Each structure stands twice: as structure tokens, then as C-alpha cells.
Amino acid sequence: MAGGVSKAVLNAMDIGANSFALFLKSPRRWESPPIKEEEAVEFKRLCEKYGYNPRTDVLPHGSYFINLATPDAEKEEKAYGGFIDDLHRCEKLDIGLYNFHPGSSLDGDHKVAIKQLAKNINRAISETKFVKIVIENMAGHGNLIGSDLQDIRDVIDMVEDKSRVGVCIDTCHTFAAGYDIADTEKWEAFWKQFEDIVGWEHLSAIHLNDSKAPLGANRDLHQSLGQGFLGLEVFRIIANDERLQNIPIILETPVGKDDLIYGEEIKLLEWLKDKKADDADFVEKAAELQSLGSKDRAEQLKKQQTKKEKATKAPKRKKNGSDILSLLAKKPKTES
Fold first, then answer.
1. Which residue has the higher pLDDT, 54 or 261?
2. In this predicted model, what pLDDT tens digit does every residue of 145-202 receive, in sequence order?
3. HAMAP family annotated for this entry (predicted)?
4. Which end of the chain offers a freer environment for a tag, N or C, measured as fewer CB atoms within 10 Å?
5. Is residue 328 part of a domain?
6. Is residue 61 annotated as a catalytic residue, yes or no?
7. Has 222 been annotated as catalytic?
8. What are the φ/ψ torsions at residue 117 (nearest 5 degrees)?
9. Active site residue: 89, 101, 164, 236, which one?
């Protein structure tokens, strides 16, 4: 959307996208100039011209600064200001979905943080008209909310208008959080858990990413489709899963300086339609992509092994008085 939000429509059209994501303002700043009226009109005109329904096909991503669950009241209010500003921008553009990271409890109580997050979602719904707030599942690093499906269920339970809240499942985050989805049996088992815990009616979007880090690593490291630890098979399954029709499926794979790589991956996904796991050309393509990502996977496995070895060698000590004083003297964690 550099040069105006309407440019996102043209960029999506140029790579053959049926749906697209965008930032509604700079993700690197708390405040940005409002969207000009003429730019909003142009965004809607281009959506209509190129066949995008902004209520269903567009999934803006919230700023990474936003943490509605922070135990710091001043920071919570600042985060809410950025959050509600994004939602108002959505409604100005007639966008019906808004994806965001649910945040972190930091050094606070996790259950209290979940309750606070739900409170802020209810507050935002009361101050807007139609945009659906879509909670993204997370990879599980630190005290993040949403790496466990139960976290998301707990938030939804406390949202008063459940028609205004949804869920985005990120394939990399899911795998990194310890949910194995790499083959048909595991894919189906995950969605059975999702149905039992969250409810299929809340699925509103998919973020499509392979993972540079291995299963359960709790590391949010996106990789190009087929090159990571997930491999191409899960994306073949996704391309043929009729349950995922009519929701935005968004690529967040590494692109470097060339967004046209998204176009290549869209073509790959279209090629996977109707492919079988034992088709010779599929097997060949899967092996080719795994080869391209072999160096990255080896590096991550080495890092994971080093981490485990350090954890094993670390001496376990009883906390005496001086240990406790040392802990109390440490500076608290700060938000990223």
C-alpha cells in the first residue's frame, strides 16, 4: 500500500491474488495520517473493478506494536488507541475483517491477560459497526496468548457479540506451537481439536507459511512453501480441502525485495489442486523444494540442539536468600 491503500488492490491483481492482506498504516509507527476520502473512494472503486469484495476478500494485518493484554495500564490504553484506529480505517474502506496478534501477558497473570483482551475486544465492537475482529493463533514464544487453542476459546467465551469475532490459523504458528499438521491424518486431527475447542464457525482466515523451525520449537520463522519442516504435502492438502473455500488464505512467506514471489506461490497452489500425494510430478516438486530449504532446516536443527544441550547442562540450584534478591533486582521484561 505504499503510495496509498488503493495501490494494494492493484498489487494484488498484478500477481493473480483472489484475496489479499495489507497494512492500513505504517506498522512501524503508532500514529499515521488518516486515510484521505478520495483514497478510500479509489480503494472501493478498484475492488469493484477487479472483483474483490472488501467485506470477505481483504484481511488487513494489525500493527505488531499492539498488545491489548499488557499489564501496564498506560501501554494498554495506547495499544487500544492504535487498535480502534485500525478498525475505523477498515470501516472507512468497507473492509469486513481485521486480523491481529492477541498479545502477551508479559510478567502478568495469563488468565487476567486473557480477560483483559476480551474486555478490549468488547469495547472495540461497541465502538464500531460491522468489522469482524480476527484473532491469530501464535507460535508459543514467551507469554504470548493464542499458542494454545484453549486461549482463543477462552477469549471468544467472553466476547459478547460472537458474530464479530473470528480466528485466523497460521500454519507456521500452528506447527511451531506443537500441533503437527504435516500429513492428512495429522491435519484432520488438528481440525478435530479446533472444532471441539474453538468451533468451526469461528474460522475466518488462513495464513499460509511453511516453518523454518522444527515442530514445537516455539519459533515464529516463516519459510517458503515446501522448503521448511512442514513440506509441500500439507499445502497440497490445503489446496484440495473444500472446507477452506470462501475465506481469505494469505501468504506470509519470505519475499525479499520481490513481491512477485507471491505470484509464483499462488501458481504453485493452483497447480496442487487435484494432485495426489503419489503423483510423480508432485513427488518430484516436493523433493526439489525440500532441497532448496535444506540449509535453513539444518541451521535451525543445530540451534535447537544447542539450546537443548545448554538446558541439560544448566545446574539446578535451590533458591537461597541471595538468589531471590538477585531475581528481584532484575529489570522487568519490556514490550517489543
1. 54
2. 999 999 999 999 999 999 999 999 999 999 999 999 999 999 999 999 999 999 999 9
3. Nfo
4. C
5. no
6. yes
7. yes
8. -60, -45
9. 101
Q: Which of 88, 89, 164, 173 is catalytic?
A: 173
Is residue 324 one of the residues assigned to a domain? no
Place of cell 538468589: 323
Q: Quick one: 182 exposed, middle or buried, by C-beta within 10 A (0-12, 13-18, 19+)?
A: middle
207 counts as catalytic: yes
Closest among 100, 169, 104, 178 to 137, alpha carbons compared: 169
Rounded to 5 degrees, φ, ψ at 269 are -65, -40
Domain that holds residue 156: 6-315
Catalytic-residue membership of 173: yes
Q: Is 101 a catalytic residue?
A: yes
Per-residue pLDDT reduced to its tens digit, 232-278 = 999 999 999 999 999 999 999 998 776 778 999 999 999 999 999 99
Instruction: Supply the CATH number for residue 143's domain.
Output: 3.20.20.150
Catalytic residue status for 202: no
Annotated active-site residue 170? The verdict is yes
Within a domain: residue 1? no
What distance in Å separates the CA atoms of residue 334 and residue 162, rounded to the nearest whole number?
32
Q: Of the listed 39, 76, 136, 233, which one is catalytic?
A: 136
